[in-house]
Every structure is written in C-alpha cells, then in structure tokens.
Amino acid sequence: MAIKDIVCLLDIETDLTTAPVQIATEIASKLDAHLTGLAPLIEPIVPALMVQPVPDQFISDARNRSIEKARSSMERFSSYTKNSGIAFETRLLDITPGGLETFVNSTRLSDLIIIGQDNPDKPEPLRADLIEAALFDSGQPIMVVPFVGTEAFSAKKVMVAWDGSKTAARAIHAAMPILELAEAVQVVLVDGKKLHLPGDPGADLAVYLSRHGVDVTIENISSDGEGVAAALLNHIESQKIELVVMGGYGHSRMREFIMGGATREMLESMTVPCIMAH
User: Fold this and answer.
1) Are 98 and 129 in contact (CB under 8 A)?
2) What does the alpha-carbon distance between residue 1 and residue 173 come to, in Å, rounded to a whole number?
3) Torsions phi, psi of 128, nearest 5?
C-alpha cells in the first residue's frame, strides 16, 4: 500500500515547531504524499464536583484561549511546511472531552497518522485518549514520535517486532513504503521459541520482506525475565535502531491496563518513532 495521505496531530501547548511536524513533513516529501495538520480545539473541561455554577465568562475565556492555541499551531505548521514543496492543508478540530469522533472521522481516510508522545513536563490535552482513539478506532496505522524528538527523520535502520500476530502483520503492511527505503531491517523476536510459530520463527517474514526488496536479518533476543518491552527498548539502544514497526494492543484495552503490555510500555518509554497498527 502506498502512503499518499498523511495526517499529523499538532501540538498546541508549545510555541515551537515540534518533532511530529518535522517528521511528517520529511516523510510526505520522501513519499510525495499530501500532509494535513490537525489542530485540536479542546472544549473547556468543567469540574463535575464544583458547588457553584461556572460563570459563562470563565467558559468563554477558556474557549478563546483554546482557539488561540489551535490557530497558533496551524500557523507554525503552515510556516514550516510551506518551504518543503509538499501539498498540505490545515484543519481545526472542535473536540469535546469524552467525544473523540471528530478526530477519528478526520483520520479514517488517510494512510498514516502521526502523533507526538505525551510530554509529562508539558502535557497536551487528551493526548493519551487521542493516541488510543487513533490506534483502536481509526482503522489506520499510527506513528508515535517520542517527545525527546529527533534531529532529523531517518529510517535507514529499522526494527520490526514480530510475534506472528495480525496486529504486527498489519503494521508491516502499512509501513512497507518506508521499509522499502530502509538500508537494513531487523526482524526481532523476543523469546521466539515461546511464540509457537511454525517452522523457523521469523523466516517466513524475512522471505516476504525480501520479495519487496528489503535487506532483512532475523534477531532472536531474550527477555531475561524483564518483559518484552524492556527487551525491545534495550535492543533499540544497543543496535542504534531509528524506527520501530510493531503491532499495537494485541489484547483488549482492559487486559493491557490491568496486566500491563508491550504496547503501553513502549508508548510510555519509547526513544525512537514507532509505527503501530491494531
């Protein structure tokens, strides 16, 4: 599948051009894709337990501040992107807490959604909810960009986290245009013998990728009792991986929340961009 339509969720709690915009612009340029910057206008959240009614002026002022932040993010996006030579547009999304349909509906007819990881020191409103909504409800792959940022987007050395699941397969199909541009792709299995995959674990995927012209190797690593996410993060650092491709939430959201899971841990601790699909 070609990547010809990319949407990028804009950060509004900053005055800077952020890594998601930079990376989205570079990918759109490399793949000759159209890029849309989505600026979230978050409706003011009124505390449910307030004894006194909230003054109308308070709500009005809060909404005006939200509008100003959203418009500023669109101006930064346009100013940065217009010099790249790509086709782009901006959209203002009016999002109410608890109702993310506007955002999801704006992403379904796209090939890739790019979203920044939430920065705990400067959190974006509803960011965790928007990432989850994109992953579960859009039907499209997402690329999550770490808040630490990157100097420039590079996907020369890519890691594909393979467990034989349908979510991992979907992520690979979605990322294929980027994988085909990579210089080296590692198919990484964590505790491969425990995955109960037929034949030589990872070999079928390596053959499939090679038929697309991908230079691929297979790496079987051990979790050493630390968990899948920890093993992947250590491998990313030691191998200087620049991009990760993996399935997202192989189990239900509730099970992942209660039991923990590689997806949630990767989203919290990732250090390089990660393409996920559910």
Assistant:
1) no
2) 7
3) -60, -40
Cα angle for residues 225, 267, 209 (degrees, 5° grid): 80
* Domain's final residue, options 87, 120, 145: 145
10's tokens: 């804009």
**Of 151, 166, 48, nearest in space to 98 by CA:** 48
Q: Quick one: 107 and 10 in the same domain?
A: yes
Task: State the pTM of this model.
Answer: 0.89
Token code pair at residue 226: 């630390």
DSSP output for 252-273: -HHHHHHH--HHHHHHHH--S-
From the number of C-beta atoms within 10 Å of its C-beta (0-12, 13-18, 19+), residue 230 rates as: middle
Calpha distance 18→147 (Å, rounded)? 9
Boundaries of domain holding 118:
5-145
Q: Identify whether 152 is part of a domain.
A: no
Dihedrals φ, ψ of 46, to 5°?
-95, 120
CA distance 242 to 200: 26
Neighbours of 124 (CB within 10 A): 22
180-205, pLDDT tens digit by residue? 999 999 999 998 878 877 778 789 99
Q: How far apart are CA 106 and CA 130, in angstroms?
A: 12
Please tell me the total count of domains within the chain: 2
